[in-house]
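Before going further, learn to read the protein records used in this course. The integers have meaning only within a learned vocabulary of local backbone shapes. To see the layout at work, look at the sequence and tokens printed below.
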Amino acid sequence: MIETTKLSAGRLAEAAAQAVDEIEALLRASLTGDVSLGATLKFVHPGADALVIDGRKTPNEVHRRDVPADCTVHIDPVLNLDILQGHVDQNVAFRQGRIRIVGDLSVVTRLRPIMARRSGAVNE
């Protein structure tokens, strides 16, 4: 988990970029050929790159091109990494207003079991 409470602006930008790199690697490892979102999901990370999962392709494609998506999640990249790693509950973060979702909410909910399976929390 990346701690951001005592970092300067430059260090925050560095932590955000590092978080996006880790998120991209985690998504690529989790979205194997046997799973699919069946839609396009974009994570918009303020101060850092956006990440897109094109789940309409086989295998899923993870990239940083800014393209339209079925669902767009606006989220701090460090928080996003913490959620994907299971350190923070996404429902709590959403209720706290730390996540904004635009579009088809069901798309982002399809990612949860994929990530849980990757961590070994769910055996499908």
